[in-house]
Amino acid sequence: MESNFIEIVQIIKQSRTNATKAVNAELINLYWNVGMYISNKLKLSDWGDKTVADLSEYLQRNNPELKGFNSRGLYRMIQFYESYPENHKLIIDSERSFEPKNQSSTIVSSLMTQFKTIDIKSSTIAKISWTHHMTIFSRCKLNEEREFYIKLCIRENYSVRELDRQINSSLFERAMTSENPKSIIPKNSKTDIQQVFKDSYIFDFLNLPEQHSEGDLQEGLINRMKDFILELGRDFIFIGNEYKLMVGDSDFYIDLLFYHRGLQCLVAFELKAGKFKPEHIGQLNFYLEALDRDVKKEHENPSIGILLCKDKNNQVVEYALSRSLSPTMVAEYRTQLPDKELLQQKFNDIFEDEEELNSNQD
């Protein structure tokens, strides 16, 4: 009998999930249509900023039960619509229904029927919550970046907290600069070394010229440590720069030394403003050996080395690492994102299989 009871519980939970999704889709539909209405009014010069403020005051005075319709909320709805207008691919991928003019609408009053309303509840943007959208808007600068995180939230069922963590770890930048972007997309798996470290890092916040020295790179990263750690990802703790190691009667210096809480190990970063060379591995392995012998605590895991180069040849890297026993990785850094055409190609690489699968199911 209890198995039947469990099935009933599953039915209830599934129904609740479906109800939550339906409510969310209706809310997104509402905010988008409100944003469309006000945006069109502003573009036609029928309204100005003062009118939007008056509307907000009117709603709060006459309908205090309506939440989220203050001036800031209304402008967010305008931004929401203008980011994903009627002809946007995240809107037109749905079966939209256009209500004819001069008929009442469930979204807006019949007094406002000079503008059509559009049912976007089956669109891509209605598949994530308003809180997800606000997180993406507040953190993402590029249209491509917003689209990337929207699709990823749907595919991986990210919570808002998980979405925020992925943005913090610059998942978009990593995917857009990776030779194999699919390989760095997490699949709800536990954190491991491959999830922590990237094969490419973006240092656009440094504003470095194309020709720069390792000293310029190191100084820039030190001065912008907060941005650097955001690019590295969660759980990194900065220990020091030019960290001194004493071996025999000689002193050696690690460019940047971190500790990773999740992996419980020291992480040494060596910076190279030029192309990767095999001899760089020998230098980094020497530092790791010194760290493990003289600095690492007994309960900590073996140290990890990251060689940050401006450029690398993957075959040369593979040969250089093939006989290395130390946990060493070689990553590129870039001072800016790739151009639009390359961004689009990366998007296709990540999402084309999913879109083909969805079309076959339809």
Count all strands and give the number. Answer: 8
Structural class, judged by helices and strands?
Answer: alpha/beta
How many domains? The number is: 3
Q: What is the beta-strand fraction?
A: 15-25%
Mean pLDDT: 79
Classify the helix fraction into a percent range.
40-55%
Query: Which architecture of the largest domain does the CATH hierarchy give at level 2?
Result: 3-Layer(aba) Sandwich
Can you identify the CATH class of the largest domain?
A: Alpha Beta
Instruction: Report the span from N to C terminus.
Output: 38 Å
Give a description of the structure.
This protein is α/β, with parallel strands linked by helices. The chain has 3 domains: 2-127, no CATH class; 129-189 and 339-362, no CATH class; 204-334, 3-Layer(aba) Sandwich (Trna Endonuclease, Chain: A, domain 1). Helices cover 50% and strands 15% of the residues. It has helices at 2-43, 49-62, 71-83, 89-92, 130-139, 143-156, 160-168, 171-177, 193-196, 214-223, 225-232, 279-294, 314-321, 340-361, and strands at residues 97-98, 118-119, 200-202, 236-247, 250-260, 265-275, 304-311, 328-334. β5 (250-260) and β6 (265-275) form a beta hairpin. The model is unreliable at 95-113 (pLDDT under 50).
